[in-house]
Design a protein that fits this description.
Radius of gyration: 15 Å
Number of strands: 0
Oligomer: single chain
Largest sheet: none
CATH class: Mainly Alpha
CATH architecture: Orthogonal Bundle
CATH superfamily: Alpha-glycerophosphate oxidase, cap domain
Number of helices: 7
Number of domains: 1
Distance between the termini: 36 Å
Length: 134
């Protein structure tokens, strides 16, 4: 199995996930369980340990804990990697400056970026999001 894919019965797994009292909203729990499989538990644990990481970033229910998870478990090292590939935060378009800054602040803390590095990472994502897709 791939990490997180040790699920034999999806309905049972989703019902079990919904029954857990992990402090996450139903939308966030649904998103995490469907996208991270059994690894959603690790993300929920991060959010429980640091309430600031449970902040919802978009309508899909994505949370700041996913940023920490991406850095610690998926080797994400750039803001563009976090926003465009490791999470769904930027996959449907520009998430907005406020969300980018929040994500960058968490990434900076995890990766020990200084202010200059953080600003360069934000600028790189803003530039990437302006590139036409068609």
């Amino acid at each position: 199995y791939l990490t997180g894919c040790e699920i034999k019965d999806l309905n049972f797994f989703m019902n079990e996930a919904r029954a857990q009292d992990n402090g996450l909203s139903p939308a966030t729990l649904e998103y995490l369980a469907r996208n991270y499989g059994t690894e959603y538990r690790e993300i929920a644990k991060l959010a429980r340990e640091d309430q600031s990481l449970s902040e919802t970033l978009n309508n899909d229910g994505e949370i700041q804990a996913q940023v920490v998870y991406a850095v610690r478990n998926e080797m994400a090292r750039t803001l563009s990697d976090i926003v465009m590939r490791r999470t769904g935060i930027g996959t449907l378009g520009n998430p907005g400056e406020e969300v980018l800054r929040k994500v960058a602040d968490v990434a900076a803390r995890e990766l020990r970026w200084d202010k200059e590095k953080t600003e360069k990472e934000i600028a790189a994502v803003v530039h990437l999001l302006k590139i036409p897709v068609d």
